[in-house]
Amino acid sequence: MYVSPNFKTKKALKEAIASGVKVTIFQVGPFGGNEPTEGKVSGLEGPHYPEPHKWYANGVLKNGCLIKVS
Fold first, then answer.
1. Which one, 17, 44, 46, 48, has least CB within 10 Å?
2. Contact 32, 26 (CB under 8 A)
3. For residue 28, what are the domain limits?
4. Is there a contact between 32 and 24 (Cβ–Cβ < 8 Å)?
5. CB count, 10 Å around CB of 9?
């Protein structure tokens, strides 16, 4: 799954969440549209295709927004 907005590094993602930026997740392709809105998620990756993925993460969602990333 990808995050929105598109972050180039996991560090930038963590800093955005810490500063209160609204970060959501989405799935592309035939599996899109059934993303969870609460609880733990795994398989986050970025930056978005076609750029090569440089980071991978797990996260915690609350009300459809990421509140924690590891």
1. 48
2. yes
3. 2-69
4. no
5. 12
Question: Does the pTM exceed 0.85?
Answer: yes
CB 54 within 8 A of CB 9: yes
Q: State how far the Cα of 46 lies from the Cα of 57, in Å rounded to an integer.
A: 9
Eight-state DSSP code of residue 41? E
What is the signed CA dihedral for 15, 27, 40, 51, rounded to 10 degrees?
-40
User: What is the rounded CA–CA span in Å between residue 50 and residue 30?
Assistant: 18
Which has the closest alpha carbon to 27: 60, 49, 8, 9? 49
Closest C-alpha to 22, from 61, 50, 70: 61
Query: Residue 52 has what DSSP assignment?
Result: P
What ranges make up the beta strands (E) of the chain?
A: 2-4, 24-26, 39-46, 55-62, 65-69
The total number of structural domains in the chain stands at 1
